[in-house]
Amino acid sequence: MAGRPETWVEDKKQTAIDTIIQRICEGDSLRSILMYADREVLPSMGVFLKWVGEDQELEKQYARAMSVRAESMFDEIIEISDESNADVDFTEEGKMRIVGEAVQRSRLRVDTRKWALSKMNPKKYGDKVDITSDGEKVVTNIISLGAGVKPQEDE
User: For 56, phi and psi rounded to 5 degrees?
Assistant: First the structure.
């Protein structure tokens, strides 16, 4: 969103930073925090990302908050998977039945979080590819095609 330039005095800026970092740690995305925020209280996304790029300490805080957010998202996956209240319903005759829509919605919520985590931290949450052969690691040979070898001169 274009608009007037944002001016931030140091104490107002620090309050905004503290609020943003706290909300990220609580699981909110930067976009959801800043998209429709009151510009008297929180900066635009561009201004905040500029602050992050200019301040190494803030960059570390932001990275740590994103890591905490990922852990929170991981915990949500477990909670969603364990929740079963909406998965069952009772008919008028008192028979229990599975509510397929609720099950599918939970599956979608888990899959979306798993995908997001794999992109946010691929080393920790990404798919691991293990190349083995009958349980043994595959050994690869590197063949040099003459790189770095001087041709012999005729004598």
Answer: -65, -35
Closest CA relative to residue 102, chosen from 73, 117, 81, 77? 81
| Lowest pLDDT segment from 19-23, 37-41, 151-155 | 151-155
Contact 52, 65 (CB under 8 A): no
Using a 10 angstrom Cβ sphere, with 0-12 exposed, 13-18 middle and 19 or more buried, the burial of residue 102 is: middle
Per-residue pLDDT tens digits for 85-113: 777 778 888 887 887 888 888 899 999 99
For residues 52 and 144, give the distance between their C-alpha atoms in angstroms, rounded to a whole number. 45
Q: Which of 87, 106, 107, 108 is nearest to 98 (CA)?
A: 87
Residue with tokens 């590197």: 142
For residues 33 and 55, what is the distance between their CA atoms, to the nearest angstrom? 20
How long, in residues, is the chain? 155
What distance in Å separates the CA atoms of residue 98 and residue 34, rounded to the nearest whole number? Answer: 39
CA Rg value for the chain: 26
